[in-house]
Amino acid sequence: MIITQRTELRICTACGEPIADKYLFDIDGCAWHGSCLRCSVCLTLLERQPSCYFRDRQVYCRTDYIK
Ligand SMILES: [Zn+2]
Ligand SMILES: [Zn+2]
Fold first, then answer.
1. Quick one: pLDDT at residue 1?
2. Which residues form the LIM zinc-binding domain (predicted)?
3. How far apart are the first and last CA of the chain?
4. Residue 63 CA to ligand 1 centre (angstroms)
5. 60 C-alpha vs ligand 2 centroid, how far in Å?
6. What is the pLDDT of residues 4-53, one digit of tens each?
7. How far apart are CA 10 and CA 16, in angstroms?
8. Quick check: 10 and 36 in contact, CB under 8 A?
9. CB 65 within 8 A of CB 42
């Protein structure tokens, strides 16, 4: 997961809206709003987690990823 400073308008993978925030989350070339980066299983907000995991265009927290 990379937190990047926005240089171009990116579309959020989760909500499909353009990201106008100063920072966005970039995982494997896909972008998210910080507020949209939630585990697809338990819906935990991953913005403040030390790590998150990405598989098949779904985002997981560590707990759900290793299940
Ligand atoms: Zn979003
Ligand atoms: Zn989870």
1. 66
2. 10-67
3. 20
4. 23
5. 5
6. 777 778 999 999 999 998 888 888 888 999 999 999 999 999 988 888 88
7. 9
8. no
9. no
